[in-house]
Amino acid sequence: MINLLAVFVGGGIGASCRYIITKISTKFFGFAHFGTFAANIIGCFVIGYIFGLTMEKSQVLPTSLKLFLTAGFLGGLTTFSTFSCESFCFLKEGKILHCAFYMLASFIVGLTATFAGYILSKQTA
């Protein structure tokens, strides 16, 4: 039951953070896409770091804390469904190059951030 509560609370905090990031992005850049991108990249980096810390030593973090951070907080923070919807909107508006760049950049930078988080965890562990 504690694990379910950890995911629930973490998800609420992560979703709230995503909302704040989106609002800030809209205020400074005039659109929400950068906020979605930033939330996804931050999430990729953090999950890479956690994965790196716990891959060989699962006892580094208690199970409930790991679930709070990954399934909860990062699950609420990262926004693949929003990313998909925004990509679709680009296509619907005929902005094929915008869509392709947004999707490609999200994938490449996200994967790079996950790798960077993993590498950093190995250097700090």
Compose a concise summary of this entry.
With 125 residues, this protein is mainly alpha-helical. The chain has helices at residues 2-29, 33-54, 63-77, 80-92, 96-124.
Description:
- The chain is built from 5 helices and no strands.
- It has 125 residues and is an all-alpha fold.
- It starts with a helix and ends with a helix.
- The mean pLDDT is 92.
Question: Which secondary structure elements does this structure contain, and how are they paired or packed?
Answer:
Elements: H1 2-29, H2 33-54, H3 63-77, H4 80-92, H5 96-124
Helix pairs in contact: 1-2, 1-3, 2-3, 2-4, 2-5, 4-5
Q: How many structurally independent domains? A: 1
Question: Which series of helices and strands comes N to C?
Answer: HHHHH
How many whole angstroms does the radius of gyration measure?
16 Å
Poorly predicted runs: none
Quick one: biggest sheet? none
Instruction: Please report the distance between the alpha carbons of the first and last residues.
Output: 30 Å
Structural class: mainly alpha
Helix content: over 70%
Which keywords apply here?
125 residues
